[in-house]
Amino acid sequence: MEHIKRLLSYTRRALADYDMIRPGDKIAVGVSAGKDSLTLLCALAHLRRFYPVPFEVVAVTVDMGFAGGMDFSGIQKLCDELNVPYYIEKTEIAKIIFDIRKEKSPCSLCAKMRRGALHRAAKDHG
Q1: Dihedral angle computed from the Cα positions of residues 108, 89, 37 and 94, in that order, rounded to the nearest 10 degrees
Q2: pTM reported for the whole predicted model
Q3: Is 58 strand, coil or helix?
Q4: How does DSSP assign 89-122, residue by residue?
Q5: In terms of pLDDT, which residue wins out, 81 or 102?
Q6: For residue 25, which of 13, 55, 84, 116 is within the disulfide window of CB 3.0 to 4.6 Å?
Q7: Which of 94, 5, 97 lies closest to 47, judged by CA?
């Protein structure tokens, strides 16, 4: 529990020091299922309860469109527990990069396409 308190303290201090949240902001967290994005999501969800500036949090995952699909049920369950709306932005990034363009070095293009999809989802969900 001490680790959680410390994390919330650091998060709250960063938000205040850099004036990152204004009243009524709606914050979209890009959730990749990695520890960084899930930690940020949890911290912001818990901070909503006592942070002096009211804000909303939503979670967005970019589905890359790999064959066979991905299982996002674990993220959905966490978002339900945190009372955070969860959106999955379906894309065909994998098909474009690997099947159509056959990229030899896909990382840069993939990052740009994922960022574009995340921005689109954030805009679509306010």
Answers
A1: -30
A2: 0.90
A3: strand
A4: EE--HHIIIIIIS--SS-HHHHHHHHHHHHHHHH
A5: 81
A6: 55
A7: 5
